[in-house]
Write a structure and sequence with these properties.
The complex is a heterodimer of chains A (about 325) and B (about 280).
Chain A: H1 2-6, H2 23-32, H3 39-64, E1 68-69, E2 74-75, H4 81-88, H5 105-138, H6 142-153, H7 160-165, H8 168-171, H9 176-183, H10 198-222, H11 226-234, H12 239-267, H13 271-275, H14 284-293, H15 297-321
Antiparallel strand pairs in A: 1-2
Helix pairs in contact in A: 5-10, 5-12, 10-12, 11-12, 12-15, 14-15
Chain B: H1 2-39, H2 58-64, H3 72-100, H4 108-120, H5 123-137, H6 143-168, H7 172-180, H8 185-214, H9 229-236, H10 243-274
Helix pairs in contact in B: 1-10, 2-10, 3-6, 3-8, 3-9, 4-6, 6-8, 7-8, 8-10
Classes of the chains: A mainly alpha (about 325), B mainly alpha (about 280).
Chain lengths: ~325, ~280
C-alpha cells in the first residue's frame, strides 16, 4: 500500500481503490524496474569534465599558493610566507619596503575592488529593478512581455569586451556625451572626467552587468499571484503599501540571485578596468594577471585564494539576508 | 465610479512613465553599440570619436585585408569552431545531466552545486588554476583543449538550468505509456522524450554557442599559441585604437545577433511543432 501511494505516478493521486493481492506484486515489480537510462552513465561525462576543468584547477590554485617561486617557475613546498607577504607587502615594485601600520597594497586592492563592486551592484539594482517590474507587472500581453524581455537580454549574448570598447566613443573628450553636454549648454568646454575615470568605469560596468539583474528579478516578479495584489487593493492598500508589503518581499529571492551573480562577476573583473579606466585602477584580477605575467605563480595564486575567500564571504552574507531556497 | 476612473488614470500615467524609462534603458544598453556602429563608417581621415569626417567603407576594407598585426580571420574561424563544439557538448551534457536529475541519486546535491559553481567561479581563477597546472605538468594550453574545457564549465550551468526547466514541465505519462507498451529505454527516448525536449536542447545550444563565442576572461591564459576572436580584439586594443576595431566590433555583434535570431527561429518552429 505504502509503495503505491509513494509512487509519483500522476494517475494515482486522490482516492484510490485498495490494492488487491494481485495488484501488489505488480506494483512492487514496477518500482524495481529501472526507469530511464542509468544515472551513472548520464552524469559520468559531466562529472569527469567538471573534475578536470573546474575542481582540480581550483584545488591546484590553493596548492600552488603554498609553493615557492623560483623566478621562472615553481618549487613544491609549504610556504606560508606567501600569505605573510600578501598581508604586509607594498607590492612587487618595492619588496623591501614594509610598513605594518599601512594596509598592504593587496588588501587595499581587494578593498577597492569590493567598493567598486558594491557601488555597481547598487546601481544595477536601482536601474534594473524598475525595468523588471515594468515587464513583469505592467505589460499585460504575454507576447509583448516576452518580446520586450528578450530585447533587454540580447546584450547578454553579445561580446562583453566589444560592449566595453563601445564606451570609448561615448565618453572621450570629443565623445558623444561631451557633445551632448556642450550642445545643451551645461558646460562651456569638454569635460575630462568621463573617460578613464571612476564615473566612466562605474557607468560602463553598470551597463555591462545590469541585464543580469533584470532577468532573475523579472522571473520572481512575474511569479507573484495577481490575486494577492487584487485582494490587498480591495482592502484599501495604497500602491506604495502593496509594493512594500507584497511585491518587494516576494521579489527578494530574485534580487538576491541577480546580486550574487553580479557580485561574483564584478569581483573577478579585469578587462573593463583596462579598457574604460585605462588601467588607472588595479582590480584583484589585474593583479593576478600581472603576477602571472612575471611568472610569480605562487603570489598570483595567493591573490586568487584571497579573492575566492572574499567572494564566498559576500555570497554567504547575501544568502543570510535573503532566503533563496524557495526559488531553486 | 469617479474613484475607479481616477485609479485608471493613475495606472495609465504609471505605465507611460515606465514605458519612457524602458526607452531610456534601451538607449543606455544599446546606445554605445549604435555609436560604435556609426563610427565604423568613419571617413578615411577620421578618428575614433565624433564628428564623422565623411563616411567610407575604408575601415571595413581594412578588416578583410590581410594585416601585419593580428590574425583576425584565423581568430574568427577558431572562435567559430570552438563555439560550435561547445554548443554540441553543452546541449549533450546538459540534457544528460537534467535526465539524471529527474530522479534523486546519491551525490545529486553535490553535483548540482558543482555544476552551478561553473557559473560562479570568475574566469580569471579558472584561467589561472588550469594554466599554472598545465605549465607544471608540461602540457601546452590550446584553444581546442584547455580553452574548450573551461568554456564548457561556463556554459554547462546555463544549458543545465534550461533543461531542468524543460523536464519540470514534462508530462511523464507519455513515457510511462510507451514503457507499458513494451518500448525499451532507447526507443522511449528516441520516439517520445527527444522530440518533446528538442526545443529545450536548441535553447541550451544557444547558450553554449553565444557564451563561448564571446568568452574572454576564461580563455585569457588558456588559448595557447593561437588567439580566439575576443583575445584578438583585446590584443588590438593595446595598440592605437582605430576605427577598424569598431568595424570588427560591429561585425562581431551583428554576427551574434544573427545567430541569436537563427536559434530563436529554429526554437519557435520546433516549439510550435511539439505543442
Amino acid at each position: 500500500m505504502g509503495q503505491v501511494t509513494s509512487s509519483n505516478h500522476p494517475g494515482l493521486v486522490g482516492v484510490q481503490p485498495e490494492p488487491t493481492e494481485q495488484a501488489l506484486p505488480n506494483a512492487s515489480s514496477r518500482r524495481q524496474r529501472v526507469e530511464g537510462f542509468p544515472v551513472s552513465w548520464l552524469v559520468a561525462p559531466s562529472v569527469l569534465w567538471l573534475l578536470i576543468f573546474l575542481v582540480i584547477p581550483l584545488i591546484s590554485i590553493f596548492v600552488f599558493s603554498l609553493w615557492t617561486s623560483t623566478g621562472y617557475g615553481l618549487e613544491p613546498g609549504f610556504n606560508i610566507g606567501n600569505y605573510g607577504e600578501y598581508f604586509s607587502s607594498e607590492g612587487f615594485f618595492d619588496p623591501e619596503h614594509r610598513n605594518f601600520l599601512k594596509l598592504s597594497v593587496f588588501i587595499r586592492t581587494l578593498g577597492s575592488t569590493f567598493a567598486y563592486t558594491l557601488e555597481v551592484m547598487v546601481l544595477c539594482l536601482l536601474t534594473g529593478y524598475p525595468i523588471a517590474y515594468f515587464l513583469a507587472r505592467r505589460v499585460t500581453s504575454f507576447k509583448w512581455q516576452m518580446a520586450l524581455f528578450m530585447v533587454c537580454m540580447v546584450p547578454f549574448w553579445t561580446s562583453y569586451l566589444i560592449r566595453a570598447v563601445a564606451w570609448l566613443p561615448m565618453l572621450g573628450r570629443r565623445g558623444l556625451l561631451n557633445s551632448l553636454l556642450l550642445s545643451l549648454g551645461l558646460v562651456d568646454k569638454p569635460v575630462d572626467f568621463l573617460l578613464y575615470s571612476e564615473f566612466g568605469y562605474t557607468t560602463a560596468l553598470t551597463q555591462l552587468y545590469v541585464v543580469l539583474s533584470v532577468g532573475p528579478i523579472f522571473f520572481s516578479l512575474a511569479k507573484i499571484d495577481t490575486d494577492i495584489i487584487e485582494a490587498a487593493r480591495d482592502m484599501g492598500a495604497t500602491a506604495f503599501q502593496i509594493f512594500r508589503e507584497i511585491i518587494l518581499p516576494l521579489s527578494l529571492p530574485g534580487v538576491a540571485i541577480g546580486m550574487i551573480f553580479i557580485f561574483v562577476m564584478l569581483m573577478g573583473e579585469f578587462a573593463t578596468a583596462v579598457v574604460v579606466f585605462g588601467g588607472k585602477t588595479s582590480t584583484v584580477g589585474t593583479v593576478i594577471l600581472n603576477y602571472y605575467a612575471i611568472a610569480n605563480y605562487p603570489f598570483a595564486a595567493v591573490n586568487a585564494i584571497m579573492l575566492m575567500l572574499a567572494m564566498m564571504l559576500g555570497v554567504v552574507i547575501i544568502l543570510r539576508l535573503v532566503n533563496i531556497r524557495k526559488e531553486l | 465610479m469617479a474613484r475607479w476612473s481616477k485609479q485608471k488614470r493613475k495606472q495609465a500615467l504609471g505605465t507611460t512613465l515606465f514605458s519612457g524609462y524602458y526607452g531610456l534603458f534601451l538607449i543606455f544598453i544599446y546606445g554605445p553599440m549604435i555609436a560604435m556602429f556609426i563610427l565604423s563608417f568613419q571617413g578615411r581621415r577620421g578618428g575614433t570619436s565624433f564628428p564623422m569626417r565623411g563616411s567610407s567603407f575604408y575601415w571595413w576594407q581594412k578588416l578583410v585585408e590581410p594585416s601585419v598585426v593580428g590574425d583576425m580571420q584565423g581568430a574568427l574561424l577558431r572562435s567559430l569552431i570552438l563555439a560550435l563544439i561547445v554548443m554540441v557538448i553543452t546541449a549533450l551534457f546538459s540534457t544528460m545531466l537534467a535526465m539524471a536529475f529527474r530522479k534523486r541519486f546519491f551525490g545529486s546535491n553535490v553535483l548540482f552545486y558543482t555544476v552551478m559553481s561553473g557559473l560562479m567561479v570568475p574566469g580569471i581563477l579558472l584561467s589561472l588554476g588550469l594554466a599554472t597546472l598545465l605549465r607544471e605538468v608540461g602540457i601546452p594550453a590550446a584553444w581546442w583543449s584547455s580553452g574548450l574545457g573551461v568554456h564548457v564549465v561556463w556554459t554547462l550551468p546555463f544549458g543545465f538550468l534550461v533543461m531542468m526547466a524543460v523536464f519540470n514541465r514534462f508530462d511523464v505519462s507519455l513515457e510511462e505509456a510507451a514503457r507499458d507498451m513494451g518500448a525499451d529505454e532507447w526507443t522511449v527516448f528516441k520516439e517520445i522524450t527527444f522530440p518533446l525536449i528538442l526545443p529545450g536542447i536548441v535553447a541550451a545550444g544557444l547558450f553554449g554557442f553565444t557564451l563561448s563565442y564571446d568568452e574572454f576572461a576564461r580563455t585569457t591564459l588558456l588559448a595557447g599559441e593561437f588567439n580566439t576572436l575576443p583575445l584578438d580584439i583585446n590584443a588590438s586594443m593595446t595598440q592605437r585604437i582605430r576605427p577598424t576595431l569598431f568595424a570588427l566590433g560591429t561585425a562581431s555583434t551583428i554576427f551574434s545577433l544573427l545567430m541569436i535570431g537563427l536559434f530563436l527561429v529554429i526554437y519557435s518552429i520546433l516549439y510550435r511543432r511539439t505543442h
